[in-house]
Amino acid sequence: MTPASRRALTVSALGTAQTLSWASSYYLPAMLAAPIARDLGAPSFIVFAAFSLALVVSAALGPFAGKAIDRFGGRPVLMGSNLVFAAGLLALSQAASVPWLMAAWVLIGVAMGSGLYEAAFATVVRIHGADSRGAITGITLFAGFASTVGWPLTAFLEAHCGWRGACMAWAGLHLVLGLPLNAIVPRVREAAAQRLPEAGQAAAPAPGRARPRRTEILLAYVFAVGWFVSTAMAAHLPSLLHASGVSAMAAVSIAALVGPAQVAGRLLEFGFLRRAPALLSARIAALAHPLGVAALLMFGAPAAMVFAVLHGAGNGILTIAVGTLPLLLFGPQGYGGRQGLLMVPARLLQAGAPFLFGLLVQGWGERALWASAFLGLTAAGALMCISVPGAPRSDRR
Predict the structure, then answer these.
(1) What domains, with CATH codes, occur in the chain?
(2) What is the DSSP letter of 145?
(3) Structure confidence at residue 202 as a pLDDT band (50, 70, 90)
(4) Calpha distance 316→19 (Å, rounded)
């Protein structure tokens, strides 16, 4: 098998495994919060609080998982995450009380901290070094369908097997699908042998790659805003669309467009924007959500699809930026640990997003979207303040 074929196989396996991991964790509460709360005799916000606890755990674990990938490669870390995902989902399926519910989500949070995008990105950078932008984009192209697959499949499983059966089904998929897929990832020695020549030459940080603390803070802020808005929409998008005048059935269908829109945005980045500076792509993407909010709140239900598509496309490209911007600005050396640290604020804000944005939705209805639009504008402004040393002047603006 040629190096290019092995690379394509690795990206396909990681992308499919990421689709499973996101669908069975991040996109689970939107469909199961109500039946879980009803069965346990607790308010729905308790389920979202448990999900937020999982995100806090993932934030704390992220830097350690990244450093482990830097040292040992991504294969053992990702395979371990599948086992923990399965254990957490099985525990969730047996939850009989709120403390049990919380404990199950803590386990899922451990898996999220070592098995979602940051771990996958660190894995491909460990394999391909500075020549990883295409691989990162490829992984996100696959996983962009996580909500499109996850929401309808979870709803189907819940309708036919109950929420407990849905959790058990997702746990089984981690064992029979996710674990073998992550086993395809090359070991550290194999990764070194498969690295393309230009990637190997770029393994050490280039001169001038050391960046000031200011750039780290700005980048961490952009990631935090992006993850907060993305998580808030994942938890509340169907209800927001319904509040804007869309029927309940249509709201779920339109919300499911976010996944294909994310993929479309990533295809745009992979094709048309591929030769554009990564910072320019990120700046454009940061403006997509505010533009979609403006359309929805000005024109109401007729603009619901426009909002979903713009939000999804922007979020899709920003997800790629989470992987490519640290590589561009800091180089591949120590990438996993550094990215884990940059993502700590994002994971902590993400943890509070379902609850905090839910309060805004409860008080303001669909007008709560003005808050997320404002945050998107500040993220775009932060990206405008970041530049790459030695880049053309147009990329410094």
Answers:
(1) 3-201 (1.20.1250.20), 213-395 (1.20.1250.20)
(2) T
(3) very low
(4) 13
